[in-house]
Amino acid sequence: MAVMVLPLLFFYAPGFPRALLWLMIFCLITGLISLLLLLRDSPPPFLTRLLSRLPFAAKLSQVSSSFLLYRNHPLALGRFFLWSFGEQIVPILTMYLLVLALGLSVPFHYLIFIIPVAQFFARIPISLSGFGIQEGLFVTLFSFLGLSATTAFALGFASNLGNLLIGVPGAFFYLKGDKGGIG
Fold first, then answer.
1. pLDDT tens for residues 28-67?
2. Which of 86-95's residues contact partners 24+ apart within 8 Å by CB, and which partners?
């Protein structure tokens, strides 16, 4: 969704750094090529050797296996795509409610292209729950739209903190060891 909304960001914020666009395009192309290679009955030997050396090779193998299971189920994949799209819409609506609650004047359409771009980068696993990444991106992205750095940081931090607090009830069951009947 981030790549889909980037043209809007360039339209509304012409000073947006081109390096971020190229980074996102690179990640998208790399991800698509990797996905296509993993969906083959047997990945190319060079890819198998490369992936087997990674510390998370077993997890990649599980992901690849799950892709292979669903490749012949286009209806299930279509539903997954719709759920994924909805999963991108919820944070936009949540942020809009936060903006309204704080009495800020941020137009809704700005959030449509800022939130997916920020989430795209915040989900790269280089920090704990995207803390620091999202706030920095909010400061950068909202600055192109005239929002102060302090306000943008507060929005990013409040959003991250809210997401963390939403997960606290689940942490109780996780720490307790109750998997809710799951394997």
1. 777 777 767 766 666 667 767 777 777 777 776 777 677 7
2. 88/1, 88/115, 88/116, 88/119, 91/115, 91/119, 91/159, 92/116, 94/159, 94/162, 95/155, 95/159
Residue 142 contacts residue 156 (beta carbons within 8 Å): no
DSSP of the chain: -HHHHHHHHHHH-TTS-HHHHHHHHHHHHHHHHHHHHHTSSS--HHHHHHHHTSTTHHHHHHHHHHHHHHTT-HHHHHHHHHHHHHHHHHHHHHHHHHHHHTT----HHHHHHHHHHHHHHHTSSSSGGGTTHHHHHHHHHHHTTT--HHHHHHHHHHHHHHHHHHHHHHHHHHHHT--TT--
Using one digit for the tens of pLDDT, what is the confidence trace for 25-38?
787 777 777 767 76
Quote the pTM value: 0.66
